[in-house]
Every structure is written in C-alpha cells, then in structure tokens.
Amino acid sequence: MDINIKELLPKLKSKAQAVFSKCAHFCRGLYRKVKGRSPRELYYSVRERIRTAPEKLKVRRQSGKLSLMTWLLICFLSFSLIILAAQFVLQTLFLGSFYKAIKTKNITNCAAAIEENISEGNINRLIYTISSQNDVDIILCTHDEHANFKVNYSSVVSNYSLIEGYSTSELNECFVAARNNSGSYITVIDSPDIDPQNIPDKAIEFEREDEERMIYSAAFKSEGTEYLLLLESVVTPTRSTTLTLLFQIRIILVLLILISIILAVSFSKIISKPIENINTSAKELAQGDYDVEFTGTGYREVEQLSDTLNYATNELRQVDQMRKDLIANVSHDLRTPLTLITGYGEVMKDIPGENTPENIQIIIDEATRLTSLVNDLIDISKIEAGTMKLEASLFCITDTIKEMFGRYNKLKEQDGFTFTFEHDQNVYVYADQLKISQVIYNLVNNAVNYAGENKEITVRQSCYDNRVRIEVIDNGPGIPPEKLKNIWDRYYKVDKSHQTARVGTGLGLSIVKTVLKLHKAQYGVFSKVGKGTVFWFELVRTKENGEPM
Questions:
Q1: What pLDDT, on the 0 to 100 scale, is given for residue 256?
Q2: 250 φ, ψ to 5°?
Q3: Pairwise CA distance, residues 11 & 5, whole Å
Q4: What pLDDT score was predicted for residue 60?
Q5: Could you tell me the sign of the dihedral formed by the alpha carbons of 419, 422, 426, 428, in that order?
Q6: What is the greatest pairwise CA distance in the chain?
Q7: Residue 106, phi then psi, degrees to nearest 5
Q8: pLDDT for the residue numbered 107
Q9: Could you say which DSSP state residue 67 is in?
Q10: Residue 138: beta bridge partners?
Q11: Which terminus of the chain is more exposed, N or C, with fewer CB under 10 A?
C-alpha cells in the first residue's frame, strides 16, 4: 500500500496542535491554582485532597447504587430477554432442523406400522389410513429373484408424487440402498431434481422451487416374500414461517418491555413502601426516640422484621429506663453516705466533744457502705464484660453460713432481728467459696431489707440425692406474681419509692443470678403477698474428701 506523505503531514500537524493546545490549557489552569501559594500550602492542600478522596469516592458509590425499582426492571427485562432469546434460537435458527427431525420420526413410525402389519388381511386399508392421516404417499412393492418389482398397494394423497413415477431401475436403487443400510434408507430431494415434464396437469400449483421431498425406502422380508416399501412426504419450506415468527418476536419484545416497566414500578411501590416506613422509623429510633413503632405490612418477611424491631425497641426502652434508674439510684446511694461522712466529720471538727466513738463508727459504717457499693459496681462491670471467672475449691457450705451470721450481730442488738439457721448435717460442695458466700450474703441482705414487722430471717439447708438446697426465708410483704421475673434486674424495686436499704447496695440479686449461672446452679424464688418470700438455689454436694456422692 502506497503512503502519500504530503497528505499525511497536514493531518499529523493538526493532531499535534490539538494535543499541544490541551496540554497548554491544563498547564495554565494548574499555574493559576498554584500561583502565589507557598510550598507548605501546596503540601497541605494535596494532603487534604488525598485524605478526603475515599469519602468522596464512598459518596459517589452510594449515590451510584441502584434503586429497588431499577433492580426489578433489570430483572424483569433480563428474564424477558432470556425467554425471547431462547424462543428466537429454537423457533428460527433451529426450526428447519427440528421440523426435519419430526418429519423423519413421523415417516419412520409410519413405515414401522406397515411392516408390523404386512401379513394382516386389511393392509390396504391400513396403508390408506396412514397415508391420509399423515399426508404421506405410500407404495408397497414385492421383489422377486429376477429383480422385478410389482406394486401391490399404493396410496398417493399429494398432487404430485415422485415415487409414483419411479422406473424399475430407480426402484432397484432404492431397494439396494435400503438393504445396504440395515433395511431402511432416507433421502431428501431438492426441488431442482424434479423433472417439470413429469408434473401432471393436476399439480399445476406445484411451483415452489425451494420445496423438498423426503423419501423413505425400506427393504424387508415377510413369510418368504421380499418387499420394498416407499414413503414420500413433502418438506415444507420454513422461511416464511421464520419471518412470521421474527415479526411476532419483535411485537412480543415491545409488549414485554412495557409489561416489565409496569410490573417493576408496581412491585417496587408494593415492596419498597413498607421498607421505607421501617427505614424512617429506624432513623427515629437512632435519634433516641424509643416510643417509635414499626408498622411494616404487606408481606410476611416485612411483618417479621417489624415485629423484631418492635421487640428490639421495647428492649432498648427498658434498658434506657434501667440506665436512668441505675444512675438515679447509684447517685442517691453515693450521696447519702458521703453526706453523712461529711456532716459528721465537720461536726467532729468544729464542735468540741463530738469526737465520740459513736460518730466515728457512723463514719466507718458509711465508708464501708461506699466500699460495698463500689465493689458491687466492679462486679457488675466484670459481669457485663464477661471477665468474671470462678476459682472452685472444696469447702463446707454449712460452716460458711454459720460464719456469715456473725456479721449481723449489730442488727440483732440494735434493730431486734432474729436469724435462724436450720440444718441437720455439714455439707461440702465444690464451688467458688468467695462468690457463693457473696450469694448467700446478698440473699440475706435482701431478706433483711424486706423482713417485715417480726424481723425474722431463716436460712434453711436441706439435702436430697446428691444436691444441697439453700433457702433464705423472710416474712415480709411478699412480691406480686407479675413482678417476680423482674426482681433479678439491677436496682429493680417492687416499691418504686426510693428508700435506703438497711444493708446491701441494691445490686445484690443481679450479682446472685450471674454467679449462680456461672456455677450452672438451679435457682428461683416463690412468694405470697402478705406472707413473705423464699429465695433458693441448689448445688451439687460432695463427700468430705471431695468424691461425688
């Protein structure tokens, strides 16, 4: 190929000028941006652009996400296009192949039916019936040892039949071809092979140049007689059918696009409306509005999601209320002993003679109460963090309860409490002694705070099988049945009016529940209003040497 340099140079020159112009424009813009700016300013500007690039990219990606309606439209259109593509392939590209295969199978079945019934007396009627019902020309010949053929039966239903005008030599060719091909032979003859001079006057309408003829030849022997069976069927051209189907596919494509758009818009409104409502309510919930209600309706999954979110909202509302109660109660419990300590300290400082053992004891008691409250808060934090661990050992739980009762001598002397420990034997368990002591101590403290007028507290130890059951009993006002499930919560009070407990911090039962769960112990409470409450738990007991019972 010859290259004309004179014609090529102007083109290259114009291209180079265009590239140079773009580069100059870029450089001028860059110069205007950096003009008058120090290197330090340029450095921070570039660093800021690099820092904000991921956020800008994230916004672009989020803004580029497709809506539900667009996704549905894409899905519907994709499904429609797949169906149409399959229809196009099957009904246009492979239509001729399928048609010929069906024709071949049909003419083979007709020949098989004739061969099976060749010895029947009504073979002529059978040939006529098969020929009429399947639009097939049929000729049945006998073949002798001299290669002569005699037409016994024939049925021609078409306007023009090739096999009807076959000569002896053509019949012999068909017979030999069938016999050499396991008894049957199929050939398809194009229209140019048909001699127009052989077309009779009755077939004047036979003018299609692309029409084909399928001829089935079968050579078989029955009761000592050799037969040649010829069947001929017209293979109708599929070009016009293909064009018709293509036109229909275009119409169907337009209709499917319209239907897909309508369905996508309708379904997106039906599906997205409850989701949008849930999304709006969720945003309100994220702002701290725990009174929001999720009302997603329309289908089962959205209703289940709404129920789950309503349940989560209710739980968050309770947690938020518990948090507020916890802050209020802890603030009150901290303020009271601090006020007493400060007040008595100032009195002892300013007033001579007030430095008495009683005042000092009050300060010591309130400081002890503060220590207990802080320790309980530490235990609560360990529970929530999942770091509380057990240090199990073998100990006598009976002796532990006896020793613990010594802590309540002051309540016996000053407030008139009566503590009773009912047991009939010493029981050993393998558990964390310190935490089990804390459980019993918290249960007894709770009984002291709600002991009632008679101020009687009973701890009962009973054994059965390989277990020991510890019960802490008081004769106080009792707990209503509907409030029993909440008493294990932190700072939960059956009576909401805040009052300072005689002993304990208000966190005891929550700690009790967690410690017993760590020990995999059974525990519970039963109560009657006006008669008192019984808290209990059970542990696996062992022998004194640590062996199982």
A1: 83
A2: -60, -45
A3: 10
A4: 47
A5: negative
A6: 157
A7: -65, -45
A8: 92
A9: P
A10: 155, 231
A11: N
- Residue by residue, DSSP assigns 424-439 as SS--EEEE-HHHHHHH
Helix residue ranges per DSSP H, 138-238: 168-180
Cβ–Cβ contacts within 10 Å for residue 530, how many?
10
CA 526 to mean position of chain CA atoms = 42
Residue 431's pLDDT is 93
Structure tokens at 40: 């330090």
Q: DSSP string of 497-538?
A: S----SSS-S-HHHHHHHHHHHTT-EEEEEEETTTEEEEEEE
Q: Sheet harboring 184-190: ordered strands across?
A: 149-155, 137-143, 225-235, 212-222, 184-190
Residues of the chain with pLDDT under 50: 1-5, 8, 57, 59-63, 192-194, 196, 199-208, 496-505
Phi then psi for residue 394, to 5 deg, are -90, 125
HEC readout, 120-189: CCCHHHHHHHHHHHHCCEEEEEEECCCCCEEEEEEECCCCCCCHHHCCHHHHHHHHHHHHHCCCEEEEEE
End-to-end CA distance of the chain: 106
Phi/psi-derived region of residue 114, left when phi > 0, alpha when psi is between -120 and 50, beta in every other case: alpha
Token readout for 423 is: 């047991």
Beta bridge partners of 225: 222
Residue 458 near residue 452 (C-beta atoms within 8 A):
no
Classify residue 548 by its DSSP letter: B
Written as one letter, the residue type at 489 is D
Residue 138, classified by CB atoms within 10 Å of its CB into exposed (0-12), middle (13-18) or buried (19+), is: buried
Q: What pLDDT is attached to residue 9? A: 52
Task: Decide if 436 contacts 400 (C-beta within 8 A).
Answer: yes
Sort 13 into a burial class: Cβ within 10 Å, 0-12 / 13-18 / 19+: exposed
Q: Tell me, what's the pLDDT at 541?
A: 92
Cβ–Cβ < 8 Å for 177, 217: yes
Q: Where are the alpha helices (DSSP H) in 386-471?
A: 397-405, 409-415, 433-449
Please check whether residue 508 is in contact with residue 446, taking contact to mean a CB–CB distance below 8 angstroms. yes
Length of the chain: 549
Cα atoms found within 13 Å of the Cα of residue 502, Cβ hemisphere only: 18
State both tokens at 25: 């424009």
